[in-house]
Every structure is written in C-alpha cells, then in structure tokens.
C-alpha cells in the first residue's frame, strides 16, 4: 500500500478494516501457537496472508489508500512476523539465529530512520522488494508449521516452507540495503546543503 499515492479521505473503509482485523488476530495467533494448536494457528496465518493481499488490492482498485492504512499494513505485517518467529523458535521449528537475523534487519532500519528528521523520512517508501519479502515469509510460516506435523503433508510442506523462508530472508535484507542506500543519500544531501537539524530534532 505504501507505493501508491494517498487517494482516499475516509479512514473507516474496508481495506483499513481488513488491516485492523489482521492486527487484532496477532494475539489470537500467539495464544494458539503457545497452546500448541498448530492447525488453528495455520488457519489464522492463512487468513492473515489473504487479508494482506486483499486490503492492498481493494485500496488500489477503489482509490481508498489512506495514511492510516499505510501505517496499519506494515505494523500488522511486522507484528505477525515477530510473533510467528518467536512461536516457531519456541517450538524449535526454526533456529533462534534466524529470528535474530530477521529482527536485526528491522533494527538496522529503525536505527537509520532515527538519524533523520520527520521530513527526511518521507522519501523512504515501502518497496515492491520489501512487499515480496514479507509475502515470502508469510507463506513460509504456515508451511513450516505444517512441516512440523508428521506424515506426507509435513514431508512436502517442510522443504517448500524453508525455500520460502530463505527467499524471504534474502529479499528482506536486499530491500533493507535499498532502504539504507536511500537513507545514506538523504543524509549526504543534508551534509552537502549544510542543513543539519538542531540537536533533539533528529528523532522526530
């Protein structure tokens, strides 16, 4: 949703309600995974993944892209990814170092954003690469959960899930490098123009 101009003025619209609903499902998913209800957790993940596709598609088609939607969409995605990573690592489906690798990516980006003013952050938008990385990870998680189940379904789901996980992780860091290059360009432009903001304004 972040790649499109803000065209809608109504905050209460169907795409935003879908994003908010996805956000509300995060604690539901966390409880299910802690209770060992993998089947229901997979179902929640699938609903979340479909709603992630649907809210962006509807917002673009109906011209209902809003600032609120642009905020809710990535927040819901990040919370799902973080919750799922912790749940999968807790159940030893994935190693903890993979969790740290993905969290480190977001930590690096947050660090770069904190070096800018609010105005300087505007050019940094969600890229197609970042959306593709998120989609791969959201596909990987339910497959990895299914892969933890013994049987033919698990045998098929596990390698496919790991393939999506590696694609998603690689694209996740690739998109981060693009964001960092944009951030470096913004900071370099500030240095060239000698418009360093007053101390305390940087974190916005």
Largest sheet descriptor: none
End-to-end distance: 23 Å
Rounded to an integer in angstroms, the radius of gyration calculated over CA atoms is 19 Å
Write down the secondary-structure element order: HHHHHHH
| Low-confidence regions | none
| Range of strand content | under 5%
Family: Belongs to the CDP-alcohol phosphatidyltransferase class-I family.
Subcellular location: Membrane
Membrane topology: Multi-pass membrane protein
Transmembrane segments: 24-50, 128-147, 159-180
Write structural notes for this entry:
The chain is an all-alpha fold and 204 residues long. The protein has seven helices and no strands. Helix 2 (38-62) runs antiparallel to helix 6. The radius of gyration is 19 Å and the shape is globular. The mean pLDDT is 80.
Summary?
With 204 residues, this protein is an all-alpha fold. The protein contains seven helices and no strands. The protein has helices spanning 14-34, 38-62, 67-90, 96-114, 118-121, 128-147, 152-193.
Topology:
Blueprint: H1 14-34, H2 38-62, H3 67-90, H4 96-114, H5 118-121, H6 128-147, H7 152-193
Helix pairs in contact: 1-2, 1-3, 2-6, 3-4, 3-6, 4-7, 6-7
Name its key features.
mainly alpha; 76% helix; CDP-alcohol_PTase-I; 204 residues; transferase; transmembrane; 0% strand; single chain
């Amino acid at each position: 949703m972040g790649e499109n101009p803000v065209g809608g003025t109504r905050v209460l619209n169907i795409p935003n309600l879908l994003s908010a609903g996805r956000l509300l499902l995060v604690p539901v998913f966390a409880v299910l995974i802690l209770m060992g209800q993998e089947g229901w957790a997979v179902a929640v993940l699938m609903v979340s993944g479909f709603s992630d596709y649907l809210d962006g598609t509807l917002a673009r088609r109906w011209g209902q892209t809003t600032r609120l939607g642009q905020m809710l969409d990535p927040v819901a995605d990040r919370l799902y990814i973080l919750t799922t990573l912790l749940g999968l690592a807790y159940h030893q489906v994935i190693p903890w170092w993979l969790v740290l690798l993905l969290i480190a990516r977001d930590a690096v980006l947050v660090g770069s954003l904190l070096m800018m003013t609010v105005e300087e952050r505007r050019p940094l938008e969600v890229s197609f690469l970042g959306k593709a990385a998120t989609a791969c990870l959201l596909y990987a998680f339910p497959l990895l959960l299914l892969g933890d189940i013994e049987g033919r379904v698990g045998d098929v789901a596990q390698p496919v899930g790991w393939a999506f996980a590696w694609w998603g992780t690689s694209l996740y860091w690739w998109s981060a490098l693009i964001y960092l290059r944009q951030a470096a360009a913004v900071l370099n432009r500030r240095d060239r123009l000698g418009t360093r903001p007053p101390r305390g304004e940087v974190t916005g």
